[in-house]
Amino acid sequence: MHKQEIFIAGPVGKLEAVIQTVNTPITRVGIICHPNPLQEGTMQNKVVTTVAKTFNAMGMVAVRFNYRGVGQSVGEYGAISGEVADCMAIVQWVHQQWPQAKLWLAGFSFGAYIAAEVATKVACEQLISIAPAVDRMPYKTLPTVLCPWLVIQGEDDEVVIPESVYTWFDGLKAHKTLVRLPETGHFFHGKLIDLQQVIEANTLTD
Predict the structure, then answer these.
(1) Cα Rg for the chain, rounded, in angstroms?
(2) Which of 69, 121, 144, 178 makes a 20 to 30 Å CA pair with 11?
(3) Span 25-60, pLDDT tens digits
(4) 6: three-class secondary structure by DSSP
């Protein structure tokens, strides 16, 4: 795995990003969206970096980035719509670098919504939502997600109410899979290897 720290042009200025590439033909690229920037969420979050490592293990390029106003990214909090625009800029950059590669989108907590909204705007092969904050984010107005959608929820989540996620998931009209992880809190302490295994076992392979 080769890791490169770069800046990508965003809607309000440069966005700090980390690109992790692998020594295999590049057919898929996964973008990972981090948790709430107002609660110290960054692309260095352990769940985010675990997903990036998982994508690399699956032979994919992994791209993680800081939203506007986080780390060295220019700007200030964009009230969800700004963060969606930032992710769209990352998608555009990915398409320029690897025009033939299929896109995967993943997000954790706040970032799960950002990835989901972007998945309704661009061609996406796989969406992964980890502990989606369904009570705090505008999922009720989210357009239909057409690609396969994996939702991963810890049963002992102390931040996102698991029952709210299960009820929301039951009402989804989508090509969907839910995996509940027992004895798992919001930040997946001690469960990161389990998270990686769930992603590998429940997403597209060819």
Answers:
(1) 15
(2) 144
(3) 999 999 999 999 999 999 999 999 999 999 999 999
(4) strand
